[in-house]
Amino acid sequence: MKPTQVLVALAAIAYAAPVSDDTKAKALEIDDDFPLAELEAYFEAHMNGETSEANSLHARQFSSSTYNQLTDGTPCRPVTMIYARGTTQAGNVGDPAAVGPVLFNNLASRIGLNNLAVQGVAYPANIAGYLAGGDAAGSRTMADLISRAATQCPSTKIIISGYSQGAQLVHNAAGMLSASVTNRVTAAVTFGDPKQKQAFGTIPSSRTRIFCRAGDNICDGGIIVTPAHSQYQQDAPAAAEWIAARSDPYYGAQVFVANINTMSHKVEWIFLKIKNSYHDNIERLAISKWAPQLSAEINLPDWVEDELREILIYEIIKTHMTQPFNRYSWIILRNMFGHDFDHHGKSATFLGHVFSVIAKIVLQTEDVDQQFWLDNMHLLTLGCFEIINDKTVDFTQGLLSDAGRLKAFFTPLLISAFPVVNGKLKNDEKTNSNHKKLRKHMTDRKSEKSSTLIKNEADFDDEDGPELKVEEEEDELGTRRTITFNSRKFNSVP
């Protein structure tokens, strides 16, 4: 059968059975004499002839057709992309000019090459799989890779993406994920998507983006590869911009600057937008330098105060900002040991995990033992230090448990730690000194008024630090603050 006859026959099938809005659309039934070989040759000729104007704008840092940075031993990175190529495309992501590598390079240029890991999906990518609604085994493979990323790299932002049949795999794989893994998917992005009218499992639509060009017959559920189906590299910059805004909390994100732990004043929010910065120094500045002023206008139980209140406030900020651990540990380490601590060392990370456990127990347990927390609140941080020094306890796995199991697991550890802490406070001068510094900082934070942003600049080491200036102006909407950060101005929202 000639290619033209193949197209006529298949087009008749495609247009006789338009794509349904039903998310459970059936795959085409293929007879034994169906001309798969001819159609496969047609797809290969048209889909692998892509050009990449967008890719010429960026150095081709991703210049291979195969990437396995989740499975080849590459260390976990802040963002992990699981990508499925289109029918007949090379390797497991397509050749360097295909939409996949063009997308990777555009995203890397925004968040940094070393912040992105790419894992392609190995599957046949043949026409039979496309006509079946996406290769079944490949869909399962993609789902397994997504689950592996969630387990292997607990802090990574997971992006799932695909082109053409690869887009079908994204839909299929998303429907196979557990609820906990689904929650880990930061964004789902597809190009030339035959299932554009279908959902991505239970991933919220706010986290999904579909690129379908006018005139793309594949997007309509057909089999004719029009020029529009080979032009999705042109959408790679927009897709990368959209992904970056969701995968990097400081890429156009709102950094909350206000007074922490104001016990009797209404907390004021200040929204500081920091664009185009993925770097840790910005985050450390926002948390460490402005730590005494960070807070949230939240409704915590009336009995919660002191260290416990600060821990809970930072856990809520952590959840909102999708941070990997409770940054209150940075405040504690700075309070006790000064500025020269390792922001991402084991002490900061493990202490942050412990604070998250405490927050989950207090906020999500119905029968909270208020008196236990009130009696031991002044020893809470030192007790947590005792626990993280126990090398036999694994906190990262415990974070995945529900509040009831965490309470049963964690409360006995605290009960055992508190007598040890009391003994050290009586007999160890260094522990006693650190505890006094910790309590003084907390008292200072509690006594500050919500209108105070920076109380004492002399408290911070600014020799090599960024320049920060805050100006206030009253208008009909209230107090508007202009924050100048390294000569860049950001206006607050009153």
TrEMBL record:
<dbReference type="InterPro" id="IPR011150">
    <property type="entry name" value="Cutinase_monf"/>
</dbReference>
<feature type="active site">
    <location>
        <position position="216"/>
    </location>
</feature>
<dbReference type="GO" id="GO:0016052">
    <property type="term" value="P:carbohydrate catabolic process"/>
</dbReference>
<dbReference type="InterPro" id="IPR000675">
    <property type="entry name" value="Cutinase/axe"/>
</dbReference>
<keyword id="KW-0719">Serine esterase</keyword>
<comment type="similarity">
    <text>Belongs to the cutinase family.</text>
</comment>
<feature type="active site" description="Nucleophile">
    <location>
        <position position="164"/>
    </location>
</feature>
<dbReference type="Pfam" id="PF01083">
    <property type="entry name" value="Cutinase"/>
</dbReference>
<keyword id="KW-0964">Secreted</keyword>
<dbReference type="InterPro" id="IPR029058">
    <property type="entry name" value="AB_hydrolase_fold"/>
</dbReference>
<comment type="function">
    <text>Catalyzes the hydrolysis of complex carboxylic polyesters found in the cell wall of plants. Degrades cutin, a macromolecule that forms the structure of the plant cuticle.</text>
</comment>
<feature type="region of interest" description="Disordered">
    <location>
        <begin position="426"/>
        <end position="477"/>
    </location>
</feature>
<protein>
    <recommendedName>
        <fullName>Cutinase</fullName>
        <ecNumber>3.1.1.74</ecNumber>
    </recommendedName>
</protein>
<keyword id="KW-0732">Signal</keyword>
<feature type="compositionally biased region" description="Acidic residues">
    <location>
        <begin position="459"/>
        <end position="476"/>
    </location>
</feature>
<feature type="disulfide bond">
    <location>
        <begin position="76"/>
        <end position="153"/>
    </location>
</feature>
<dbReference type="InterPro" id="IPR043580">
    <property type="entry name" value="CUTINASE_1"/>
</dbReference>
<feature type="signal peptide">
    <location>
        <begin position="1"/>
        <end position="16"/>
    </location>
</feature>
<keyword id="KW-0378">Hydrolase</keyword>
<feature type="disulfide bond">
    <location>
        <begin position="212"/>
        <end position="219"/>
    </location>
</feature>
<dbReference type="InterPro" id="IPR043579">
    <property type="entry name" value="CUTINASE_2"/>
</dbReference>
<feature type="compositionally biased region" description="Basic residues">
    <location>
        <begin position="433"/>
        <end position="443"/>
    </location>
</feature>
<dbReference type="GO" id="GO:0050525">
    <property type="term" value="F:cutinase activity"/>
</dbReference>
<dbReference type="GO" id="GO:0005576">
    <property type="term" value="C:extracellular region"/>
</dbReference>
<feature type="active site" description="Proton donor/acceptor">
    <location>
        <position position="229"/>
    </location>
</feature>
<keyword id="KW-1015">Disulfide bond</keyword>
